[in-house]
């Protein structure tokens, strides 16, 4: 898939007026997230990693966003949402129960753990989870469709789009503190934001992005 913002690198703004020191520290911490799990167990880790890979497949032209590691870091640090659906246990417990149930469903249906399944079988199981069709006792009464919607989709997409690599893909300039965004109307952008490439003007987009990176 072609890049929509070729040449754009939001991290080039680290020394620009767009980011203050607090913002730089927050972004640096996300980039330095531990690769080994600290909240999830050795048995849970390959399962959540495999789920992340199917929910948000990533392009091959760059290092992947460490989605599972970002979720693990959030849970390990106790940085929770502060709210939850009544049908779900607390966030960490919901993940532990959901991962155990996902593996139990995979073993019951295929005789193997979830991460050992083919991509097609993983997708079928996840679609059944989304539709609320999974009934293994390992769910312990937690609705699988609510877990899918409010933990799997929510936590995975939030982790992904909190990372600078994902910002580059959507042309997002990242936190703009203290400068802020000014041109908020549809179809308008601040001069230091990225420029989306369109057929016939890729060179112009690259030049625009290089200039934006320097601002």
How many helices? Answer: 8
Q: What is the beta-strand fraction? A: under 5%
Largest sheet features: none
Strand tally, please?
Answer: 0
Our count of domains comes out at 2
Shape: elongated
Helix percent band: 40-55%
Spatial extent as radius of gyration:
20 Å
The helix/strand series, from N terminus to C terminus, equals HHHHHHHH
What do these coordinates show?
- By secondary structure, the chain is an all-alpha fold.
- It folds into two domains: 1-18 and 173-215, no CATH class; 21-171, no CATH class.
- It has helices at 21-31, 44-55, 67-77, 91-110, 119-131, 144-160, 164-170, 202-214.
- Helix 3 packs across helix 6 and helix 5 packs across helix 6 (144-160).
- The chain is elongated and about 55 Å long.
- The model has no long low-confidence stretch (mean pLDDT 89).
Key structural traits:
single chain, 215 residues, mainly alpha, 2 domains, 8 helices, 48% helix, elongated
Q: How do you describe this structure in short?
A:
By secondary structure, the protein is mainly α. The chain has two domains: 1-18 and 173-215, no CATH class; 21-171, no CATH class.
Task: Give me the secondary-structure topology.
Layout: H1 21-31, H2 44-55, H3 67-77, H4 91-110, H5 119-131, H6 144-160, H7 164-170, H8 202-214
């Amino acid at each position: 898939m072609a890049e929509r913002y070729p040449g754009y690198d939001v991290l080039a703004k680290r020394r620009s007026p767009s980011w203050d020191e607090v913002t730089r520290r927050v972004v640096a911490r996300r980039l330095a997230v531990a690769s080994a799990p600290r909240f999830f167990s050795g048995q849970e880790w390959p399962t959540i990693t495999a789920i992340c890979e199917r929910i948000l497949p990533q392009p091959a032209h760059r290092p992947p966003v460490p989605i599972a590691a970002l979720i693990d870091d959030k849970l390990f640090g106790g940085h929770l949402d502060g709210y939850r659906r009544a049908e779900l246990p607390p966030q960490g417990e919901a993940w532990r129960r959901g991962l155990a149930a996902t593996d139990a469903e995979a073993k019951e249906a295929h005789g193997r753990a979830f991460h050992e399944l083919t991509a097609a079988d993983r997708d079928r199981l996840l679609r059944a989870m989304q539709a609320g069709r999974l009934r293994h006792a390992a769910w312990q009464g937690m609705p699988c469709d609510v877990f899918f919607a409010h933990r799997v989709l929510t936590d995975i997409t939030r982790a992904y789009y909190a990372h600078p690599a994902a910002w580059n893909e959507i042309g997002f300039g990242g936190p703009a503190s203290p400068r802020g965004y000014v041109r908020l109307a549809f179809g308008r952008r601040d001069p230091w934001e990225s420029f989306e490439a369109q057929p016939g003007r890729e060179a112009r987009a690259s030049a625009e992005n290089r200039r934006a990176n320097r601002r």
